[in-house]
Write a sequence for this structure.
């Protein structure tokens, strides 16, 4: 039987279609569901193996990136989300989805503490940027989405992707416990502390990242493909997660 | 009560540091700044509540009882500037803030009260030395007074207790809900014209006379009396007619009868009855038998084509020039979300899958003093428009696939802001062809999306007038991509559930246009203006009818589907209201507050408009044939061309557009090893499960209009089609859009050269038709904007006649596309197509003229702006100074160089060559392909080298074409920089040489050299080396910052 992914949509989320496609191509089933429908029927979550928080501009990011959507989840779905993770579910938050996850406190959730301790703020150059970056999947990280995937190219497109922590101690813990799953390998495109591009929780199952693996599910997406490029494609992350879930 | 939110650590606010950098650059003083976001709730809110809703606790802090400006760690500021929206302008932050509060409110009345009437503002604390002039300049850069109000408080003033306003005013409400009666019966012609002017109807005397006659018709009067209406017209009716009959909506000039006179060739004289019918529509009709992919052309919001089984694509482009001249940011954002709605309202509703934008500005380095007072500086306009495109496009989740920036002094008055969108629909939706539109009598007329306010009232009529200092503020509206995104999601869901029958967008003219058009399909409509949801009370009925408030669609919903439709809309947070009913009465029947407010015959409204009659006089342009610059090594000219803003890299601007969302992008704005060389256009995948794709390309050549618009149009079509072929597109599967932006072509005291401009329009349409027929390129939709003139400070600036061709084509296999960059050393380079050596109106001429103009300015002579374009006329109403009054043609009193006639293209030869190239590309022989356009062969070669980070060695003697007719000393400059159409730089593998040359047999081509590992571009003619420059110099020139 295939595993099942819930991909959120609505309210200004806009990369839901390709995220669902990535799960499909990785061998899972995928349903796109409007946030309003999920909020009105929280029990839905239990039917799924993965939840995808796609990129976009939820609620316009008008009050802060991902903030309004995160508040909605905190108020309406908190217990269900916690038990989803506790029961072995996988979560991926990409770009705006990552911003949402850190504001719900689902990441990094050190020792289960759900207070937000990290954030993603405006890029240091102050501008939205669409580009391709080289990233390292950190080999020591427990992240089930990136384990063993090494160095590779991924597209980025964000105005608020600069990863920061509330204190140096938080950063130290993230590093010490290898919760930094993804790091910019070449140029740091946004001024993120320690070139952090993505982090996971201690289980390794909840993962957030600024780059867009779901926008690199075909080889032809890479702009310099004719000149050769390092590493695989973004689809690998989803295949990795689906395989892990099928084996566990 | 004020809630003030700020970052704890200034280093974490990237917005502030980049803004400070920009201000420092522009004001000249060394500035730093802090940003404080201000939320003013409608009723007090606890600090805890405020923190949980408005603040990121990791990096921000918030006050509810004190001013952030007094925080110890923010001390030392020189001045505080607080910017808020003017009353009635959409405050998108406030909309979200209200929603965020209500989302947690549930049963708490205090929170609901706080959400009501909530407003937002943004405060800038400025640090550094700022004298009064620098402060004023800063304030000017921080807001647009048309839509925003700024409060400025200097540090000393703060000490004396001065503070920003506690509450920002709501729009003033003037209660005038009754329609006004306007009797036309007794009015003479002068009074009719006065009425058109004072009410901003933008109708001509013959049109006003047609109105007077309609209301005097006894049958009309009888029908009105039976309906309980006065025989006098209501303001509701006049406004509806003015909107429907506006140039913007009815394309009066394109439908006019034009008497075309060729002053040197009487045999060419003719009478054109509707350029639209004879040149545009007829072209598509002529091509229809061989283009079976056409589904819906010209009748709907967008053209619909079926390139692949299972789905259809649609495409549309619009301009938003006048609003962007006044409010560049709002104008551009509204342009994008507006054309997105066109796609959403095509057929049964399409999903937007790409955006395009072609932006034309004055030169950003225009010297302040050269610009007529009262006009915004081109740099200002460019920054605002660009930011609007960034926000509008990115937030909508639609990739910005392709586009261009053009700079030309003739765009200093009104910028041209072309916004395009493509969409996709399944071939059938609920068993019916998706592109068909049917409205049944009895269906409910439903308005969906945003509410109605005073925004954008008279937008359609306003864009049909020249821009001047008295242009109305209310003509500006600001779109909100997020609200529209929600509406889009809801509509596509409702579409697939079959919850509505038909829809169209609310754009120019608002409900009067959308319901008026849909009523044509059913045979009538009854509209109840009191049922329309309003942003605030106090709108007159006519204002409700014509308001262009954004994010609205009009739908026909079957009564039995209404409950389900409304329930889903509510669940998705989208407002829907029944505002009337479609009928087959033959009338638009309008009521307000249960009383009749208007009754207009559909037939009169849509067919009662008298045709315009326009004179057109053509006189060929005599251009001087000055000697082009001659060099031993043309490297310096090539570098100058690469640094020219039209050619130079736009990467810094374009990288701020999201071109990857939806995950289907194949050929992107930039190509090459380091993805920094320009592409010829875009290719995107149709869907994730196949290799089928489509191309999006553009052609636009306003410079050539100085010589002949027929040639300008041919070259624009060629450029778009050539790019499609060069990317790997299918030669028989492509369709095009035409967007004309013209200066007023109607002769009048204010436009003494109108007849020449009308002749330019006729010739452009002829050129368009000729090229489209030659290439088998049907036109599927189009739009025109005919009053692109600005008057300020006693001067008139008119745009160069401009035609944008947007092409949508099929790509059979996205794995077989090619890009512009050289791939490997040793690959062979070919030049395809004829090089005819024309340098007139080229980029080389532009650079030579700009350099000469700058020198004149340094010498204290007349400024370049007034002297460099035939389109700039000094003195309102007088004959343009640099333009011959009889013909409008440019003479050259300014002593700037001209290099003779502009380039042209041999359409028949090119067509055959393109087919051969398309076969070679699909046969995977071609490794790289770059079309030659601005700057000619030299620029194309430089860009292909840059993309591959490789050099090239070329021999340019004996190029095919008529180049040989020039004297030997001019061969090299003309070979390198001529802009002859129909040419490509192609590279192939060495081993494919024979195969490739066999294919090319009988066509125009030249084997020209080889790609080299040594990063140097070298071109020889015979024994002489004529161009030698290294890659680093090319890159540096190409990456010269713009502005």
């Amino acid at each position: 039987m295939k595993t099942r992914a819930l991909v959120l949509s609505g309210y200004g989320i806009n990369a839901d279609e390709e995220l669902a496609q990535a799960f499909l191509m990785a061998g899972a089933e995928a349903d796109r569901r409007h946030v309003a429908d999920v909020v009105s029927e929280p029990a839905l979550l239990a039917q799924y193996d993965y939840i995808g928080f796609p990129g976009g501009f939820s609620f316009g990011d008008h009050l802060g990136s991902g903030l309004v959507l995160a508040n909605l989840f905190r108020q309406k779905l908190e217990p269900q989300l916690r038990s989803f993770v506790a029961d072995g579910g996988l979560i991926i938050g990409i770009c705006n989805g990552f911003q949402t996850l850190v504001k719900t406190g689902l990441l990094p959730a050190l020792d289960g503490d759900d207070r937000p301790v990290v954030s993603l703020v405006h890029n240091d150059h102050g501008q939205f940027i669409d580009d391709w970056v080289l990233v390292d999947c950190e080999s020591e990280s427990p992240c089930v989405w990136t384990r063993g995937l090494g160095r590779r190219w991924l597209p980025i497109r964000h105005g608020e992707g600069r990863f920061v922590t509330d204190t140096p101690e938080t950063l130290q813990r993230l590093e010490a416990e290898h919760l930094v799953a993804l790091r910019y390998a070449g140029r740091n495109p946004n001024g993120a502390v320690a070139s952090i591009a993505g982090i996971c929780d201690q289980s390794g199952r909840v993962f957030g990242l600024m780059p867009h693996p779901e926008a690199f599910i075909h080889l032809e997406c890479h702009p310099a493909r004719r000149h050769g490029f390092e590493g695989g494609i973004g689809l690998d992350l989803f295949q990795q997660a689906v395989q892990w879930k099928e084996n566990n | 009560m004020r809630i003030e939110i700020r970052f704890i650590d200034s280093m974490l606010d990237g917005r502030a540091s980049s803004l400070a950098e920009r201000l420092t650059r522009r004001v000249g003083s060394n500035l730093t700044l802090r940003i404080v976001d201000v939320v003013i709730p409608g009723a007090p809110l606890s600090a805890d509540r405020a923190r949980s809703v408005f603040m990121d606790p990791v990096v921000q802090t918030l006050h509810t009882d004190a001013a952030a400006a007094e925080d110890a760690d923010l001390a030392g500021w020189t001045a505080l500037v607080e910017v808020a929206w003017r009353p009635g302008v959409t405050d998108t932050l406030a909309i979200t803030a209200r929603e965020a509060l209500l989302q947690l409110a549930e049963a708490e009345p205090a929170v609901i009260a706080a959400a009501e009437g909530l407003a937002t503002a943004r405060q800038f604390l400025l640090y550094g030395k700022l004298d009064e002039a620098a402060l004023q300049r800063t304030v000017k850069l921080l807001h647009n007074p048309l839509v925003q109000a700024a409060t400025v408080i200097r540090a000393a003033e703060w000490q004396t207790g001065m503070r920003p306003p506690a509450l920002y005013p709501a729009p003033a409400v003037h209660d005038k809900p009754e329609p006004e009666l306007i009797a036309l019966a007794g009015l003479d012609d002068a009074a009719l014209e006065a009425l058109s002017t004072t009410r901003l109807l933008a109708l001509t005397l013959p049109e006003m006379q047609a109105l007077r006659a309609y209301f005097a018709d006894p049958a009309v009067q009888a029908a009105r009396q039976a309906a309980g209406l006065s025989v006098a017209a209501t303001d509701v009716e006049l406004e509806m007619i003015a909107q429907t009959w506006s140039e913007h909506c009815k394309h009066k000039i394109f439908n006019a009868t034009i008497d075309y006179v060729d002053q040197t060739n009487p045999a060419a004289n003719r009478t054109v009855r509707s350029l639209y019918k004879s040149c545009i529509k007829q072209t598509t009709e002529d091509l229809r038998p061989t283009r079976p992919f056409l589904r819906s052309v010209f009748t709907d919001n967008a053209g619909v084509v079926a390139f692949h089984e299972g789905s259809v694509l649609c495409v549309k482009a619009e301009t938003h020039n006048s609003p962007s001249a006044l409010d560049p940011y709002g104008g551009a954002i509204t342009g994008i979300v507006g054309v997105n709605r066109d796609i959403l309202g095509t057929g049964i509703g399409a999903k937007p899958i790409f955006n395009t934008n072609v932006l034309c500005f004055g030169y950003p380095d225009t010297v302040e003093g050269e610009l007529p007072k009262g006009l915004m500086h081109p740099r200002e306009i460019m920054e605002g428009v660009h930011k609007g495109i960034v926000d509008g496009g990115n937030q909508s989740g639609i990739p910005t696939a392709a586009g261009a920036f053009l700079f030309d002094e003739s765009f200093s008055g009104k910028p041209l802001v072309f916004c395009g969108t493509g969409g996709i629909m399944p071939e059938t939706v609920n068993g019916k062809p998706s592109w068909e539109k049917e409205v049944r009598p009895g269906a409910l007329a439903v308005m969906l999306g945003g509410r109605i306010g005073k925004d954008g009232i008279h937008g359609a009529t306003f864009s049909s007038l020249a821009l001047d200092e008295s242009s109305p503020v209310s003509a500006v509206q600001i779109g909100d991509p997020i609200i529209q995104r929600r509406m889009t999601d809801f509509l596509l869901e409702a579409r697939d559930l079959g919850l509505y029958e038909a829809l169209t967008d609310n754009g120019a003219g608002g409900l009067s246009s959308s319901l008026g058009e849909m009523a044509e399909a059913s045979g009538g409509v009854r509209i109840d203006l009191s049922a329309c949801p309003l942003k605030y009370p106090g709108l007159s009925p006519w204002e409700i009818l014509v308001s262009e408030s954004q994010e609205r669609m009009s739908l026909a919903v079957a009564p039995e589907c209404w409950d389900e439709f409304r329930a889903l809309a509510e669940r998705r947070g989208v407002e829907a209201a029944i505002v009337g009913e479609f009928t087959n009465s033959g009338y638009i029947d309008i009521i307000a507050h249960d009383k009749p407010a208007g009754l207009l015959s559909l037939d009169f409204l849509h067919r009662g408009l008298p045709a315009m009659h326009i004179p057109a006089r053509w006189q060929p342009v005599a251009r001087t044939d000055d000697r082009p610059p001659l060099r031993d090594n043309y490297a310096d000219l090539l570098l100058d061309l690469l640094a020219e803003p039209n050619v130079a890299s736009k990467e810094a601007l374009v990288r701020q557009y999201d071109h990857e969302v939806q995950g289907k992008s194949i050929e992107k704005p930039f190509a090459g090893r380091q993805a920094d060389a320009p592409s010829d256009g875009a290719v995107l995948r149709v869907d994730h499960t196949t290799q089928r794709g489509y191309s999006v390309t553009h052609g636009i050549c306003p410079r050539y209009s100085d010589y002949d618009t027929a040639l300008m149009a041919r070259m624009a079509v060629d450029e778009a089609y050539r790019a499609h072929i060069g990317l790997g597109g299918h030669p028989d599967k492509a369709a095009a859009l035409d967007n004309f932006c013209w200066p007023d072509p109607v002769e009048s005291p204010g436009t003494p050269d109108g007849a020449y401009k009308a002749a330019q329009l006729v010739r452009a349409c002829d050129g368009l038709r000729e090229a489209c027929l030659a290439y088998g390129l049907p036109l599927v939709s189009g739009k025109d904007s005919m009053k692109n003139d600005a008057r300020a400070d006693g001067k008139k600036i008119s745009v160069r006649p401009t035609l944008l061709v947007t092409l949508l084509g099929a790509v059979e296999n996205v794995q077989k596309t090619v890009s512009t960059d050289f791939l490997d050393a040793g690959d062979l380079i070919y030049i395809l197509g004829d090089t005819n050596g024309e340098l007139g109106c080229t980029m080389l001429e532009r650079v030579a003229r700009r350099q000469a103009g700058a020198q004149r300015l340094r010498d204290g002579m007349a400024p370049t702006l007034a002297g460099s374009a035939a389109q700039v006329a000094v003195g309102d109403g007088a004959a343009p100074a640099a333009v011959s009054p009889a013909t409008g043609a440019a003479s050259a009193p300014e002593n700037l160089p001209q290099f003779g006639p502009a380039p042209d293209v041999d359409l028949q030869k090119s067509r055959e060559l393109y087919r051969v190239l398309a076969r070679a590309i699909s046969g995977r022989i071609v490794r790289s392909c770059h079309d030659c356009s601005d700057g000619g062969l030299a620029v194309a070669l430089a860009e292909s080298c840059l993309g591959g980070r490789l050099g090239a060695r070329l021999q340019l003697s004996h190029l095919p074409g008529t180049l040989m007719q020039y004297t030997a000393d001019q061969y090299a400059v003309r070979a390198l920089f001529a802009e002859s159409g129909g040419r490509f730089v192609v590279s192939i593998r060495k081993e494919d040489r024979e195969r490739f040359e066999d294919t090319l047999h009988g066509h125009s081509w030249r084997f020209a050299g080889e790609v080299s590992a040594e990063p140097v571009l070298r071109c020889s003619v015979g024994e002489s080396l004529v161009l030698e420059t290294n890659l680093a110099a090319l890159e540096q020139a190409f990456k010269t910052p713009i502005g």
